[in-house]
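Why do we care about 3D structure at all? Because function follows from shape, and shape follows, mostly, from sequence. That is the central idea of this module. The next example makes it concrete: a single protein chain, its amino acid sequence, and then its structure expressed as tokens.
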Amino acid sequence: MAGRGCTAGYEGRGVSGESLIEAVRRGDAQAVDVLLEAGADPDSADACGTSALCLAVDAFDLNTVEALLASSRLHHTAADGHSPLLRAIDRGACDIAETLIRHGASLSVKDAEGRDALALARHWHRTGVANELRRSGRPGPIRRGTVRSASGATCEELSLGDLTVRTGHTAILTMLEPRYGILPSFEELLSRALAEPDVDHEVWWATTHALQQRHDRAVWDAAAALRDRADPLERYFGAEVLRVTNLLDESDDSPFDAPLVDLFVPWVAQEPEPRVAGALTAGLADALDSRAEEPLTMLARHHDSKVRQWAVNGLHHAVETENPKALAALTQGTKDECAAVRQAACRAIACAPPHVEDAAEALASCLADPDESVRVEAAVRLALRDDPRGDAVLDGLDATDRNSPYHWLLYDVHHHRTWGR
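And the structure:
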């Protein structure tokens, strides 16, 4: 509704490139959409010759980049000779670089020094962001901070003067190499991950995903061998490679499922590091093998809340089949000290068949939870079971607010009540 109204305001008159540039500088992706629909030139540039798409890349603004992608020239170079992709690589913007490549950005375009995408990413990987920033000659100390992408991955952001760069270059390099036919060794990818102690850093996903994509038994064996390493980060890497390999496998016979359960059940029982135990529990939660259910019920009482959350998430199938231990573990989970665990327990326990009254009672008990997200989760799950006890909670929410964290939950209730019965 608002978008149409804004578009109407531009009808009947030319839409200047300045308007588009201003919207990009503001980071207003919705306004960019409106202006493009009204006829703005997607390749508009500022006074320095920098295109709207390159400006969005410089601002690390993925939403605006995506708004411009449908109509902008991906291979158009800015005044500095960089295409949008090369600019994204220079800035260390992994999520934007990946998006540009997915939309067809050329890997063969070279910068003024003759470096293509791979060579530029390798240059930053070897030199390091801090060293490269200092070489720019800008004054002042380097400022550091941590940012999180839409996918949840973290990245360090370094600024010197007016230049800001993120530490996504190693992840970009790892993403690019297979596109050039390059397959680094398992040990090389492991070392890249270990260089970043934050396991949420995007390089951890890039390296484990690169190994998963190989569908190689030797990768599985190398990852499994890490379970005996003294360094918990090495064990975590091994667990993640194995988990992702099984999770993303599209084979009809699920060849990795049973071997993963065989390996993870004894491993998690003796794993002292919570991060590693979390990865192992997540792997068991994704497994189709019913042998994972018993350890998951025990892990639902683990001392670490992340492990408990993964465990209760993985018990939805067990409660579907009316496994009494799973139902008991989830019922206990609705009383957990951690709100995220209680919310996850509500989602899982709602998978119990409609005739299982204990499940509905456990959900109803959460309607008075001190955390709103848990109350709403419980109310929604009751409504989807045609139980009206949570309606008072739902009535106090605005189902039309698309920015609400509960928008899609409320949509599910509306759809169920309109079409589901």
